Structure formats: structure tokens, C-alpha cells
Amino acid sequence: MGLHGTMFGFFNQPRFYDRMSRVFGFRPVYTRTVADVAGASLPGGGRVLDVGTGPGRVPAAIARRCPGLHVEGLDLSAEMIDYARRTAGTDDRLNFTVGDVAHLPYDDDAFDLVVSTMSQHHWADAEAGVRELARVLRPGGQVWIYDFRPALRRAEAAAQAAFTGHTIRRERISALVGRLVVRPA
Fold first, then answer.
1. I need a surface site. Which of 70, 87, 98, 172 has the fewest CB within 10 A?
2. How far apart are CA 53 and CA 87, in angstroms?
3. Number of domains the chain is built from
């Protein structure tokens, strides 16, 4: 189990999580993630996975902005997923699942794009998580991990081992936050 379920139990409380996202200035990163997905030119019916979805704000915003996509949100916290389901309404393009990035409950080659926004630094096993992202990614798909820049080093090292035939690079988004991009070479 990752840090969300152990010493940082307050991350399981959606309203507190939303407040802390505002305090720490993560909202612009979430907005950037949604804009990046909208600009990705994914095919109609494409599938996007948001790992570490928290209260489900990013998948809901992607679904609103990209009506042709199916968006799945996954989080370790049942409380977060319950909240995401309640606030998402009845949009059948949105689905939320309780699960661990190290053991994703999806078939191989299930998603065109996998994103993770400000959660990778909480993963108990980054190598297992990145291997799972590689497993569920369709051929030709991409992985984008947005997180604190120092934390991305762990994910980058894991991606070098998990993704063959892909270009892997870190991008600076702000002084604190970066994005790891994994795309076919």
C-alpha cells in the first residue's frame, strides 16, 4: 500500500484534498493535464487512464472537454473513488476504480494515453507502477507523468527499463513540477 493509505490518511478525504490542492497550487497542473490531453489528437473512442485520480477532477474535466474519449480514473482510496463517482454524475464515458498502480485491474493494451498528475511521488513501488503503465498502454500510446521534478527521476529510471522502442524525456513545467513523457520513438 502506498503512502495515501498509511501515514497520510488525510489524503483519503476529498474535500481536504481539494483544499490542499489549492493551497499548494496544483490546480494549474491539473488544468495543464486536461489541456495537454485535449491537444493530443486522440482518436474518437480513445481511452485515457488517470492514475492517482484522487477526487476525480481531472477525468471529469477531460470528459467535458473531449467528448469523444472514454476516461478511467484509478485511485488507491475507496473514499476518493466513492466521491468521484458521486460527483461525476451519469456520464457513461467516465468510470472510477479502486486499485493500486502496482497491480492495475485492466487488460493489456487497454489505453491510448495514461496520465498521472501529482501522485507518482506517493507510489510505494515506482518500478512496478511504471511496468504496469507499460502493460496497459496500447501500441503507439503515450504515458505522461506530472509530478515534482525530483520525484520524476525515479519514474524516468523505471521507464528506461519498462519501455523499449520509446523516447523518454523530462520536461519542466514550473520551478517545482515537471512532466515525464514516454512516447513511441
1. 172
2. 13
3. 2
The answer to whether residue 143 sits within a structural domain is no
Q: What is the pLDDT of residues 52-107, one digit of tens each?
A: 999 999 999 999 999 999 999 999 999 999 999 999 888 899 999 999 999 999 99
CATH number of the domain to which 96 belongs: 3.40.50.150
**What are the beta bridge partners of residue 149?**
none
Largest CA distance in the chain: 41
**pLDDT of 103-157, one tens digit each?**
999 999 999 999 999 889 889 999 999 999 999 999 999 999 999 899 899 899 9
Cα 18 from Cα 158, distance rounded (Å):
29
- Per the CB < 8 A criterion, the answer to whether 111 and 72 are in contact is yes
